[in-house]
Amino acid sequence: MDTSLKKIYEWPAQTLTVWRQADKHKIPRICFLNKMDKTGASFNYAVESIREKLKAKPLLLQLPIGEAKTFKGVVDVVSKEKLLWNSSSVDGKDFERKPLLEMSDPKLLKETTEARNALIEQVADLDDEFADLVLGEFSENFDLIPAEKLQTAIHRVTLAQTAVPVLCGSALKNKGVQPLLDAITMYLPSPEERNYEFLQWYKDDLCALAFKVLHDKQRGPLVFLRIYSGMIKPQLAIHNINGNCTERISRLLLPFADQHVEIPSLTAGNIALTVGLKHTATGDTIVSSKSSALAAARRAGREGEKKHGQNSEAERLLLAGVEIPEPVFFCTIEPPSVAKQPDLDHALKCLQREDPSLKVRLDPDSGQTVLCGMGELHIEIIHDRIKREYGLETYLGPLQVAYRETILNSVCASDTLDRTLGDKRHLVTIELEAKPIETSSVTPVIEYAEGVSEDILKASQEAIENGIHSACLQGPLLGSPIQDVAITLHSLIIHPGTSSTMISACVSRCVQKALKKADKQVLEPLMNLEVTVTRDYLSPVLADLAQRRGNIQEIQTRQDNRVVIGFVPLAEIMGYSTVLRTLTSGSATFAVELSHYEAMNPQDQSTLLNRRSGLT
C-alpha cells in the first residue's frame, strides 16, 4: 500500500481488486504500509484508509520513527523495541535493534506503551483464549504479558481473518523489510496449518505439485515443486500421474531469491527446484511411484474398474493440482517463414509445459497451427513471449470464440473399410448409434451393446475409442468439438490381422457419418460475469450489459460498491475492459470465468454460420 495516498478515497483499483479476491478465497493476510520515506507520507491516513476502504480491523504491530524525509526506522509494538537503519547503508541490510528505555526515549516509550495496550485490548476482543489470559493473571498490568503470548494470539486472529496485522517501512531502501519477513513466518499460516483432503490418503508417501516450469538454456527444464508430503532427494525416481510416466531427479536445489542452493533432501512444506524432469508440466502431480498413487486411490475408495470413456488411469487417481478450464478463444499463428516452423513448434512445446491453459493444435484442413487460450490478453502474452524469449516474429490470425457443437436426436450409421496394403487385407465393418445426453460431458460417452464380442473388444478397445474421440474433435457445422454425445457400438466385425490404425479410421468415419445425419446445434460459451462498480455508474453498466445479451442474476451491495452478477455470452464481451473503463472513468473492475456452454437461438446461430461461411 502506498502511504502517500493521503485522501481516503484515492486507492489504486488493483489493490482493491486483490483484496476482494483474498476475501472471496478466505486468504489470511497482513498489510505493509510502504513508501514511509516519501514526501507526503502519512501513517495515520493509511491506517484509517484500511478501516474505511477495506472494512478491516488493523492491528498496529509497528509505529514509524519519523515520516517522509525523517523516516529512519520502526518501533516493534509487541516487544517494545526500536529498529533503526543506518542512513549510510545503501542496501538497508545494516540495522540495529534496541529496547525502548525511559531515560533515552520517554516520549516514544509512552506512545508505544499506549499502542501496545490498545493492541492487547483489540486482540482480547477477538480471541477468547487470549482474553482469558488478559483477564486472569495479567489483568493488573499489561506490561507483564510476554511478547510470545501476544504473538501467538495475533497469529490465531490472523488465521481467523477477524483482523489484519499492519507493519510499515520503505521497501525500496530495504527499511522494514526484514521484520516484514519475520512477520510473514510468525503470523501467516504455515504449510502444516493448511489441510488438504488428498493428504490423508497419501499419508507419509511423497505427494508434490509441479506449480511452475522454466526453461534454462544450459540446464534444460527447471521444475518447481511444492512438497505436500514425503521427501525428495537427488537421483530419486518419481512418477508423474498426469503424464503417466516415470522420471528421475538429477539435481535438487533450494530456491533462495535468485540463488539456487544445492541440497541433499527436502521435506513437506518446502519448495523444491528440480533438474532432470523432462516431461513434467505445470499442474502435474508427482508421487513416489505408480503403486503409491493407486494405494492412495484405494484408501479414498476411488479405485474400481475403469469406466468406458475414461482416457487414462490418471482420472482415477488423486491429483494435487487444479483443474484447467477448456480454452474459450483461438487463433492461427504462423512463423515468418517455413524454415522457422520447427523453431515455432519448439517454442510452443515449451510454453505449453509452462502454461497448461495454453493448447496448441494443427488444423487438419489448412495445416495451420492454432493457438487456444483463456482470453485476448492470454494470447497476446503468449505472442509477446514467443518474440521476446525465442526471437520469433510470428503472425496471429483474427481471434475467434471457441464454440462447441452437439446433436439433437439419435441416429444410426454403419460403415465398412476394406483395404489391401501389400499382401495384407484390412477389413472392418461397424454399426453404431449417436445420441444426445442430458448431462454435460466434454468428451463422448462410449457404450457397448451386448452383441459386441468381448474378445474383439478386449483386443481393439483402445483403437475404437481413439477413433471416436478423433471424430468428435471436429463437428459438421463449424469444425468445433462435439460434446454432450453418447456413442453406442452395436456391431463390430474385424478381419484377422487388421491394424489398429484401420480400426480407428473406420470408427472415426462412421461416427462422422452419424453426426452429419443428425440435427445439429451450435453451443456458445456463457461466462459468469461479476462487475464491481460505484452507485453513480451502475445504470450505464446495466444498460450496456443489456445490449450484450447479458442475463443479470442479482445486484449485491458490498461496502460502498454495487456488484452486478450475471451471465453473458463470451462473443459479446470481447474488448469489454476498454468499454467498461470508458463508461466508469476507470473506477469499475470486472471478472469473468467460463460457466457453461448453452445452445444458441436459431437466429444467432444462422448469423454465425453465414459469417463463418463468408455469406455475410
UniProtKB/TrEMBL annotation:
GO molecular function, one term: GTP binding
Keyword list, A-Z: GTP-binding, Hydrolase, Mitochondrion, Nucleotide-binding, Protein biosynthesis
PROSITE patterns for this protein: G_TR_2
Name of the protein: Elongation factor G2
PANTHER family: RIBOSOME-RELEASING FACTOR 2, MITOCHONDRIAL, TRANSLATION ELONGATION FACTOR G-RELATED
Residue intervals of the Tr-type G domain: 1-192
GO terms for cellular component: mitochondrial matrix
InterPro entries cross-referenced by the UniProt entry: EF-G-like_DII, EFG_II, EFG_III, EFG_III/V, EFG_V, EFG_V-like, P-loop_NTPase, Ribosomal_Su5_D2-typ_SF
Native source organism of the sequence: Rousettus aegyptiacus (Egyptian fruit bat)
GO biological process: mitochondrial translation; ribosome disassembly
